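Quick one - first record:
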Amino acid sequence: MLDLRPPRNQADPRAIAWWTVQGLVATALLAIPALVAFALLTDRPGWLAALLGALCAGLLALALVGPRAQYRFSRWEVTDQAVYTCSGWLFRSWRIAPMSRIQTVDTARGPLQRLFGLSDVTVTTASSAGAIKIEGLHHALADDLAERLTAITQATPGDAT
Protein backbone atom coordinates (compact mmCIF):
# COMPACT_ATOMS: atom_id res chain seq x y z
CA MET A 1 0.00 0.00 0.00
CA LEU A 2 1.24 3.52 -0.82
CA ASP A 3 1.98 5.90 2.02
CA LEU A 4 0.11 9.12 1.09
CA ARG A 5 2.04 11.95 2.70
CA PRO A 6 3.88 14.98 1.36
CA PRO A 7 7.10 14.05 -0.46
CA ARG A 8 10.26 14.77 1.53
CA ASN A 9 12.78 16.14 -0.97
CA GLN A 10 13.21 19.55 -2.60
CA ALA A 11 15.15 20.61 -5.66
CA ASP A 12 18.77 21.66 -5.24
CA PRO A 13 18.93 25.25 -3.89
CA ARG A 14 20.82 26.28 -7.04
CA ALA A 15 17.59 25.63 -8.95
CA ILE A 16 16.29 28.97 -7.64
CA ALA A 17 19.03 30.79 -9.57
CA TRP A 18 18.43 28.62 -12.66
CA TRP A 19 14.68 29.31 -12.62
CA THR A 20 15.34 33.02 -11.99
CA VAL A 21 17.64 33.26 -15.02
CA GLN A 22 15.01 31.46 -17.13
CA GLY A 23 12.37 33.91 -15.91
CA LEU A 24 14.55 36.93 -16.62
CA VAL A 25 15.30 35.69 -20.14
CA ALA A 26 11.59 35.14 -20.79
CA THR A 27 10.84 38.60 -19.37
CA ALA A 28 13.44 40.16 -21.67
CA LEU A 29 12.06 38.29 -24.69
CA LEU A 30 8.60 39.69 -23.97
CA ALA A 31 9.46 43.15 -22.68
CA ILE A 32 12.17 44.27 -25.12
CA PRO A 33 10.06 43.94 -28.30
CA ALA A 34 7.16 45.69 -26.55
CA LEU A 35 9.44 48.54 -25.43
CA VAL A 36 10.98 48.86 -28.92
CA ALA A 37 7.51 48.94 -30.51
CA PHE A 38 6.45 51.61 -28.01
CA ALA A 39 9.59 53.65 -28.73
CA LEU A 40 8.85 53.52 -32.46
CA LEU A 41 5.36 54.96 -32.01
CA THR A 42 5.07 58.61 -32.98
CA ASP A 43 2.08 59.19 -30.71
CA ARG A 44 2.69 57.60 -27.29
CA PRO A 45 -0.45 57.78 -25.18
CA GLY A 46 0.11 57.92 -21.43
CA TRP A 47 -2.24 55.01 -20.76
CA LEU A 48 -0.15 52.79 -23.05
CA ALA A 49 3.06 53.80 -21.26
CA ALA A 50 1.44 52.99 -17.90
CA LEU A 51 0.16 49.65 -19.21
CA LEU A 52 3.58 48.75 -20.61
CA GLY A 53 5.28 49.78 -17.37
CA ALA A 54 2.87 47.65 -15.33
CA LEU A 55 3.39 44.70 -17.66
CA CYS A 56 7.18 44.93 -17.41
CA ALA A 57 7.06 45.35 -13.62
CA GLY A 58 4.70 42.37 -13.29
CA LEU A 59 6.88 40.16 -15.46
CA LEU A 60 9.99 41.17 -13.53
CA ALA A 61 8.28 40.51 -10.17
CA LEU A 62 7.10 37.10 -11.38
CA ALA A 63 10.60 36.24 -12.63
CA LEU A 64 12.08 37.10 -9.23
CA VAL A 65 9.38 35.73 -6.88
CA GLY A 66 8.16 32.72 -8.88
CA PRO A 67 11.33 30.63 -8.56
CA ARG A 68 11.40 31.02 -4.78
CA ALA A 69 7.78 29.93 -4.54
CA GLN A 70 8.43 27.02 -6.89
CA TYR A 71 11.34 25.89 -4.72
CA ARG A 72 9.28 26.21 -1.55
CA PHE A 73 6.25 24.29 -2.81
CA SER A 74 7.77 21.64 -5.13
CA ARG A 75 8.63 18.29 -3.55
CA TRP A 76 9.58 14.84 -4.74
CA GLU A 77 10.36 11.43 -3.29
CA VAL A 78 11.15 7.94 -4.52
CA THR A 79 10.35 4.85 -2.47
CA ASP A 80 10.51 1.18 -3.38
CA GLN A 81 6.81 1.38 -4.23
CA ALA A 82 6.35 4.67 -6.12
CA VAL A 83 7.58 8.04 -7.33
CA TYR A 84 5.81 10.96 -5.64
CA THR A 85 5.79 14.59 -6.76
CA CYS A 86 3.93 17.63 -5.54
CA SER A 87 4.21 20.98 -7.27
CA GLY A 88 2.54 24.31 -7.84
CA TRP A 89 2.08 27.29 -5.59
CA LEU A 90 -1.26 28.54 -6.86
CA PHE A 91 -2.62 25.30 -8.27
CA ARG A 92 -1.28 22.24 -6.41
CA SER A 93 -0.60 19.08 -8.39
CA TRP A 94 0.13 15.70 -6.79
CA ARG A 95 1.43 12.83 -8.90
CA ILE A 96 2.10 9.28 -7.76
CA ALA A 97 3.50 6.68 -10.14
CA PRO A 98 3.71 3.10 -8.88
CA MET A 99 6.96 1.40 -9.88
CA SER A 100 5.01 -1.20 -11.86
CA ARG A 101 3.73 1.58 -14.19
CA ILE A 102 7.12 3.13 -15.03
CA GLN A 103 8.13 2.67 -18.66
CA THR A 104 11.23 4.87 -19.03
CA VAL A 105 13.51 7.02 -16.88
CA ASP A 106 15.39 9.87 -18.56
CA THR A 107 17.76 12.59 -17.42
CA ALA A 108 18.18 15.92 -19.20
CA ARG A 109 20.67 18.78 -18.85
CA GLY A 110 20.16 21.94 -20.86
CA PRO A 111 22.91 24.50 -21.37
CA LEU A 112 21.77 26.71 -18.48
CA GLN A 113 21.34 23.68 -16.24
CA ARG A 114 24.91 22.59 -16.96
CA LEU A 115 26.13 26.04 -15.86
CA PHE A 116 24.41 25.48 -12.51
CA GLY A 117 25.33 21.76 -12.26
CA LEU A 118 21.67 20.68 -12.43
CA SER A 119 19.60 18.05 -14.20
CA ASP A 120 16.00 16.93 -14.58
CA VAL A 121 14.71 13.37 -14.22
CA THR A 122 11.66 12.43 -16.26
CA VAL A 123 9.69 9.31 -15.37
CA THR A 124 7.42 8.16 -18.18
CA THR A 125 4.47 6.00 -17.24
CA ALA A 126 1.46 4.48 -18.95
CA SER A 127 -0.65 7.34 -17.54
CA SER A 128 -2.64 9.59 -19.83
CA ALA A 129 -1.60 12.49 -17.54
CA GLY A 130 1.90 12.28 -19.00
CA ALA A 131 5.37 11.95 -17.58
CA ILE A 132 6.44 12.96 -14.09
CA LYS A 133 9.28 15.47 -14.10
CA ILE A 134 11.59 16.10 -11.15
CA GLU A 135 13.40 19.36 -11.89
CA GLY A 136 16.50 21.07 -10.56
CA LEU A 137 18.45 18.16 -9.08
CA HIS A 138 22.21 18.15 -8.61
CA HIS A 139 23.54 16.30 -11.67
CA ALA A 140 25.10 13.49 -9.61
CA LEU A 141 21.86 12.99 -7.66
CA ALA A 142 19.89 12.88 -10.91
CA ASP A 143 22.19 10.20 -12.32
CA ASP A 144 21.96 8.16 -9.10
CA LEU A 145 18.18 8.57 -9.02
CA ALA A 146 17.81 7.41 -12.63
CA GLU A 147 20.00 4.39 -11.88
CA ARG A 148 18.03 3.58 -8.71
CA LEU A 149 14.67 3.93 -10.47
CA THR A 150 15.83 1.68 -13.28
CA ALA A 151 16.96 -1.00 -10.82
CA ILE A 152 13.74 -0.82 -8.77
CA THR A 153 11.58 -0.85 -11.90
CA GLN A 154 13.37 -3.91 -13.31
CA ALA A 155 12.87 -5.76 -10.02
CA THR A 156 9.17 -4.80 -9.79
CA PRO A 157 6.67 -7.25 -11.28
CA GLY A 158 4.22 -5.83 -13.82
CA ASP A 159 4.19 -4.86 -17.46
CA ALA A 160 4.07 -1.03 -17.09
CA THR A 161 0.99 -0.69 -19.27
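second record:
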Amino acid sequence: MKRRTLAVLLTAAMTMGTMLTGCGDSAEDTSSANSGSDNTDTEDKAADETADEDLSGTITAAGSSALKPLADDAADAFAELYPDIAITIDAGGSGEGLKQVSEGTVDIGNSDVEASEKLDEAQASELVDHQVCVVTMAPIVNPDVKEGGVENLTKDQLISIFTGETKNWSEVGGPDEDIVLVTRPTSSGTRATFQKYALDGAEEASNASMETDDSGVLLQNVKDTKGAIGYVALSYLVGDTGVETIAIDGVEPTLENTYNGTYPVWTFEHMYTKGEANEVTQAYLDYIMSDEYGEQMEELGYGVSSKMTVTEH
Protein backbone atom coordinates (compact mmCIF):
# COMPACT_ATOMS: atom_id res chain seq x y z
CA MET A 1 0.00 0.00 0.00
CA LYS A 2 1.05 3.64 -0.52
CA ARG A 3 1.79 5.70 2.60
CA ARG A 4 -1.10 8.12 1.98
CA THR A 5 -3.53 5.26 1.81
CA LEU A 6 -2.19 3.92 5.08
CA ALA A 7 -2.64 7.38 6.66
CA VAL A 8 -6.24 7.62 5.57
CA LEU A 9 -7.08 4.11 6.53
CA LEU A 10 -5.00 4.00 9.69
CA THR A 11 -7.45 2.07 11.74
CA ALA A 12 -8.07 -0.49 9.04
CA ALA A 13 -4.37 -0.76 8.39
CA MET A 14 -3.64 -1.34 12.05
CA THR A 15 -6.32 -3.99 12.12
CA MET A 16 -4.87 -5.65 9.01
CA GLY A 17 -1.43 -5.31 10.48
CA THR A 18 -2.57 -7.19 13.52
CA MET A 19 -4.14 -9.86 11.33
CA LEU A 20 -1.08 -10.09 9.14
CA THR A 21 1.14 -10.27 12.20
CA GLY A 22 -1.03 -13.07 13.48
CA CYS A 23 -0.73 -14.88 10.11
CA GLY A 24 2.98 -14.26 10.13
CA ASP A 25 3.29 -15.80 13.57
CA SER A 26 1.28 -18.77 12.39
CA ALA A 27 3.48 -19.22 9.34
CA GLU A 28 6.57 -18.86 11.49
CA ASP A 29 5.23 -21.44 13.88
CA THR A 30 4.48 -23.81 10.99
CA SER A 31 7.94 -23.22 9.56
CA SER A 32 9.47 -23.96 12.93
CA ALA A 33 7.39 -27.13 13.21
CA ASN A 34 8.43 -28.22 9.71
CA SER A 35 12.00 -27.36 10.49
CA GLY A 36 11.78 -29.50 13.58
CA SER A 37 10.31 -32.35 11.49
CA ASP A 38 13.09 -32.01 8.90
CA ASN A 39 15.66 -32.08 11.66
CA THR A 40 14.02 -35.17 13.11
CA ASP A 41 14.06 -36.87 9.69
CA THR A 42 17.70 -35.92 9.22
CA GLU A 43 18.55 -37.23 12.66
CA ASP A 44 16.66 -40.47 11.91
CA LYS A 45 18.55 -40.88 8.64
CA ALA A 46 21.82 -40.18 10.38
CA ALA A 47 20.92 -42.73 13.04
CA ASP A 48 20.10 -45.28 10.34
CA GLU A 49 23.38 -44.60 8.57
CA THR A 50 25.23 -44.95 11.86
CA ALA A 51 23.38 -48.21 12.52
CA ASP A 52 24.39 -49.44 9.07
CA GLU A 53 28.01 -48.55 9.65
CA ASP A 54 27.93 -50.19 13.06
CA LEU A 55 26.50 -53.47 11.76
CA SER A 56 29.33 -55.97 11.88
CA GLY A 57 30.00 -59.66 11.83
CA THR A 58 30.71 -62.51 9.44
CA ILE A 59 28.73 -64.42 6.83
CA THR A 60 29.77 -67.78 5.41
CA ALA A 61 28.18 -69.45 2.41
CA ALA A 62 28.80 -72.50 0.22
CA GLY A 63 27.11 -74.44 -2.55
CA SER A 64 25.98 -73.74 -6.09
CA SER A 65 28.73 -72.69 -8.48
CA ALA A 66 26.02 -71.30 -10.76
CA LEU A 67 25.05 -68.84 -8.04
CA LYS A 68 28.57 -68.01 -6.88
CA PRO A 69 29.28 -65.13 -9.33
CA LEU A 70 26.15 -63.35 -8.09
CA ALA A 71 26.91 -64.07 -4.46
CA ASP A 72 30.48 -62.77 -4.89
CA ASP A 73 29.43 -59.61 -6.72
CA ALA A 74 26.69 -58.82 -4.21
CA ALA A 75 29.15 -59.41 -1.37
CA ASP A 76 31.57 -56.86 -2.84
CA ALA A 77 28.81 -54.24 -3.26
CA PHE A 78 27.42 -55.04 0.19
CA ALA A 79 30.87 -54.55 1.75
CA GLU A 80 30.85 -50.93 0.59
CA LEU A 81 27.70 -50.35 2.64
CA TYR A 82 28.76 -52.49 5.58
CA PRO A 83 32.58 -52.41 5.75
CA ASP A 84 32.68 -54.29 9.06
CA ILE A 85 30.97 -57.40 7.69
CA ALA A 86 33.25 -60.10 6.28
CA ILE A 87 31.74 -62.54 3.78
CA THR A 88 33.29 -65.84 2.67
CA ILE A 89 31.68 -67.74 -0.21
CA ASP A 90 32.71 -71.19 -1.45
CA ALA A 91 31.30 -73.35 -4.23
CA GLY A 92 31.25 -77.16 -4.01
CA GLY A 93 27.83 -77.79 -5.55
CA SER A 94 24.27 -77.37 -4.31
CA GLY A 95 24.26 -80.66 -2.41
CA GLU A 96 27.36 -79.67 -0.48
CA GLY A 97 25.97 -76.23 0.32
CA LEU A 98 22.72 -77.70 1.61
CA LYS A 99 24.61 -80.26 3.67
CA GLN A 100 26.80 -77.60 5.27
CA VAL A 101 23.98 -75.20 6.12
CA SER A 102 21.98 -78.10 7.55
CA GLU A 103 24.94 -79.03 9.75
CA GLY A 104 25.38 -75.41 10.79
CA THR A 105 28.90 -75.05 9.39
CA VAL A 106 27.87 -72.16 7.08
CA ASP A 107 25.24 -69.44 7.40
CA ILE A 108 23.93 -69.79 3.83
CA GLY A 109 23.56 -72.82 1.59
CA ASN A 110 23.38 -71.74 -2.07
CA SER A 111 21.37 -74.12 -4.21
CA ASP A 112 19.92 -74.51 -7.72
CA VAL A 113 17.38 -76.99 -6.37
CA GLU A 114 14.98 -77.17 -3.46
CA ALA A 115 16.41 -78.57 -0.25
CA SER A 116 14.01 -81.53 -0.33
CA GLU A 117 15.79 -82.84 -3.43
CA LYS A 118 19.12 -83.22 -1.62
CA LEU A 119 18.25 -83.63 2.07
CA ASP A 120 15.92 -85.86 4.02
CA GLU A 121 12.60 -84.44 5.17
CA ALA A 122 13.72 -83.64 8.71
CA GLN A 123 16.82 -81.77 7.56
CA ALA A 124 14.97 -79.87 4.82
CA SER A 125 12.22 -78.78 7.23
CA GLU A 126 14.76 -76.92 9.38
CA LEU A 127 15.83 -74.68 6.50
CA VAL A 128 14.32 -71.39 5.40
CA ASP A 129 14.25 -70.75 1.64
CA HIS A 130 15.19 -67.34 0.22
CA GLN A 131 14.54 -67.28 -3.56
CA VAL A 132 16.98 -64.67 -4.77
CA CYS A 133 16.87 -64.85 -8.58
CA VAL A 134 16.38 -66.99 -11.69
CA VAL A 135 19.23 -68.85 -13.36
CA THR A 136 19.24 -70.09 -16.97
CA MET A 137 21.36 -73.10 -17.96
CA ALA A 138 22.79 -73.24 -21.48
CA PRO A 139 24.39 -76.08 -23.44
CA ILE A 140 27.86 -74.96 -24.56
CA VAL A 141 30.23 -76.42 -27.13
CA ASN A 142 33.76 -75.93 -28.35
CA PRO A 143 33.71 -73.36 -31.21
CA ASP A 144 34.72 -76.00 -33.78
CA VAL A 145 31.38 -77.77 -33.24
CA LYS A 146 29.34 -74.71 -34.15
CA GLU A 147 31.68 -73.86 -37.01
CA GLY A 148 31.06 -77.41 -38.23
CA GLY A 149 27.35 -76.72 -38.57
CA VAL A 150 25.71 -77.45 -35.21
CA GLU A 151 23.80 -74.37 -34.04
CA ASN A 152 20.65 -76.05 -32.77
CA LEU A 153 19.76 -79.37 -31.20
CA THR A 154 16.36 -80.86 -30.58
CA LYS A 155 15.67 -82.15 -27.10
CA ASP A 156 15.82 -85.70 -28.42
CA GLN A 157 19.24 -85.05 -29.93
CA LEU A 158 20.46 -83.45 -26.72
CA ILE A 159 19.23 -86.40 -24.69
CA SER A 160 20.90 -88.83 -27.08
CA ILE A 161 24.21 -86.95 -26.80
CA PHE A 162 24.26 -86.64 -23.02
CA THR A 163 23.19 -90.24 -22.42
CA GLY A 164 26.06 -91.39 -24.63
CA GLU A 165 23.94 -92.85 -27.41
CA THR A 166 25.10 -90.34 -30.03
CA LYS A 167 28.89 -90.36 -30.08
CA ASN A 168 29.89 -88.37 -33.18
CA TRP A 169 28.87 -84.86 -34.21
CA SER A 170 28.29 -85.99 -37.77
CA GLU A 171 25.18 -87.83 -36.51
CA VAL A 172 23.51 -84.48 -35.79
CA GLY A 173 24.74 -82.53 -38.79
CA GLY A 174 28.14 -81.53 -37.46
CA PRO A 175 31.79 -82.36 -38.19
CA ASP A 176 33.12 -85.91 -38.26
CA GLU A 177 34.43 -85.62 -34.74
CA ASP A 178 33.96 -87.51 -31.52
CA ILE A 179 31.62 -85.95 -28.97
CA VAL A 180 33.39 -85.28 -25.65
CA LEU A 181 31.08 -84.90 -22.68
CA VAL A 182 32.20 -82.52 -19.95
CA THR A 183 30.06 -83.49 -16.98
CA ARG A 184 29.09 -82.51 -13.46
CA PRO A 185 28.96 -84.75 -10.35
CA THR A 186 25.64 -85.95 -8.93
CA SER A 187 25.91 -83.39 -6.10
CA SER A 188 25.65 -80.56 -8.62
CA GLY A 189 22.44 -78.52 -8.71
CA THR A 190 23.39 -77.35 -12.21
CA ARG A 191 23.40 -80.99 -13.30
CA ALA A 192 20.05 -81.63 -11.60
CA THR A 193 18.48 -78.63 -13.33
CA PHE A 194 19.87 -79.52 -16.74
CA GLN A 195 18.90 -83.16 -16.37
CA LYS A 196 15.35 -82.25 -15.34
CA TYR A 197 14.54 -79.59 -17.92
CA ALA A 198 16.90 -80.24 -20.85
CA LEU A 199 17.12 -84.03 -20.71
CA ASP A 200 13.57 -84.67 -19.46
CA GLY A 201 14.99 -86.59 -16.51
CA ALA A 202 17.22 -88.94 -18.54
CA GLU A 203 20.31 -90.09 -16.66
CA GLU A 204 23.45 -88.35 -17.88
CA ALA A 205 26.41 -90.47 -18.92
CA SER A 206 29.50 -89.91 -16.81
CA ASN A 207 32.91 -88.86 -18.09
CA ALA A 208 35.11 -89.26 -15.02
CA SER A 209 38.13 -87.70 -16.72
CA MET A 210 36.13 -84.57 -17.51
CA GLU A 211 33.91 -84.30 -14.44
CA THR A 212 34.08 -81.18 -12.29
CA ASP A 213 31.97 -79.53 -9.60
CA ASP A 214 33.13 -76.06 -10.74
CA SER A 215 31.33 -74.29 -13.59
CA GLY A 216 34.39 -72.20 -14.38
CA VAL A 217 36.54 -75.28 -14.79
CA LEU A 218 33.86 -76.95 -16.93
CA LEU A 219 33.72 -73.94 -19.22
CA GLN A 220 37.51 -73.95 -19.59
CA ASN A 221 37.50 -77.68 -20.40
CA VAL A 222 34.92 -77.16 -23.14
CA LYS A 223 36.93 -74.26 -24.51
CA ASP A 224 40.15 -76.30 -24.60
CA THR A 225 38.75 -79.59 -25.93
CA LYS A 226 37.71 -80.11 -29.55
CA GLY A 227 34.32 -81.75 -29.88
CA ALA A 228 33.41 -80.93 -26.28
CA ILE A 229 29.93 -80.18 -24.97
CA GLY A 230 28.79 -79.24 -21.47
CA TYR A 231 26.46 -76.78 -19.79
CA VAL A 232 26.74 -73.75 -17.51
CA ALA A 233 24.62 -70.91 -16.18
CA LEU A 234 24.36 -67.77 -18.32
CA SER A 235 26.30 -65.96 -15.61
CA TYR A 236 29.43 -67.76 -16.85
CA LEU A 237 28.82 -66.58 -20.41
CA VAL A 238 29.02 -62.82 -19.93
CA GLY A 239 31.63 -61.43 -22.32
CA ASP A 240 33.93 -63.38 -24.65
CA THR A 241 34.27 -66.79 -23.03
CA GLY A 242 35.68 -68.79 -25.96
CA VAL A 243 32.74 -71.20 -26.14
CA GLU A 244 29.47 -71.21 -28.09
CA THR A 245 25.90 -71.72 -26.88
CA ILE A 246 23.49 -74.07 -28.63
CA ALA A 247 19.77 -73.42 -29.12
CA ILE A 248 17.31 -76.07 -27.96
CA ASP A 249 14.46 -76.73 -30.40
CA GLY A 250 15.31 -73.46 -32.11
CA VAL A 251 15.16 -71.32 -28.95
CA GLU A 252 18.31 -69.54 -27.84
CA PRO A 253 19.28 -69.60 -24.15
CA THR A 254 18.76 -65.93 -23.24
CA LEU A 255 17.22 -64.03 -20.35
CA GLU A 256 14.53 -62.66 -22.65
CA ASN A 257 13.50 -66.17 -23.72
CA THR A 258 13.57 -67.28 -20.11
CA TYR A 259 11.33 -64.41 -19.04
CA ASN A 260 8.80 -65.09 -21.81
CA GLY A 261 8.71 -68.82 -21.08
CA THR A 262 9.98 -70.09 -24.44
CA TYR A 263 13.34 -71.37 -23.16
CA PRO A 264 12.84 -74.33 -20.83
CA VAL A 265 16.09 -74.79 -18.89
CA TRP A 266 15.87 -72.46 -15.90
CA THR A 267 15.21 -72.56 -12.20
CA PHE A 268 14.84 -70.31 -9.20
CA GLU A 269 18.02 -69.90 -7.21
CA HIS A 270 17.86 -70.46 -3.47
CA MET A 271 19.86 -69.20 -0.52
CA TYR A 272 18.92 -71.35 2.47
CA THR A 273 19.45 -70.51 6.13
CA LYS A 274 18.99 -72.84 9.06
CA GLY A 275 16.00 -71.23 10.71
CA GLU A 276 15.51 -67.49 10.36
CA ALA A 277 18.61 -65.60 9.29
CA ASN A 278 20.44 -63.50 11.87
CA GLU A 279 20.51 -59.71 11.45
CA VAL A 280 23.75 -59.61 9.49
CA THR A 281 22.86 -62.44 7.11
CA GLN A 282 19.35 -61.05 6.57
CA ALA A 283 20.77 -57.66 5.62
CA TYR A 284 22.87 -59.34 2.90
CA LEU A 285 19.89 -61.34 1.61
CA ASP A 286 17.70 -58.24 1.55
CA TYR A 287 20.33 -56.39 -0.46
CA ILE A 288 20.54 -59.12 -3.11
CA MET A 289 16.75 -59.10 -3.56
CA SER A 290 16.45 -55.29 -3.58
CA ASP A 291 15.39 -53.22 -6.58
CA GLU A 292 18.68 -51.39 -6.19
CA TYR A 293 20.61 -54.55 -7.09
CA GLY A 294 18.23 -55.89 -9.77
CA GLU A 295 19.85 -54.14 -12.74
CA GLN A 296 23.28 -55.36 -11.76
CA MET A 297 21.86 -58.86 -11.39
CA GLU A 298 20.80 -58.90 -15.06
CA GLU A 299 24.15 -57.55 -16.20
CA LEU A 300 25.70 -60.57 -14.53
CA GLY A 301 23.43 -62.91 -16.50
CA TYR A 302 20.83 -63.68 -13.82
CA GLY A 303 17.09 -63.18 -14.11
CA VAL A 304 14.97 -61.03 -11.81
CA SER A 305 12.24 -63.27 -10.39
CA SER A 306 9.50 -60.62 -10.70
CA LYS A 307 10.03 -60.43 -14.49
CA MET A 308 9.10 -64.07 -15.08
CA THR A 309 5.86 -64.49 -17.04
CA VAL A 310 5.80 -68.15 -15.99
CA THR A 311 6.57 -69.58 -12.58
CA GLU A 312 6.44 -73.27 -13.46
CA HIS A 313 7.77 -75.35 -16.35
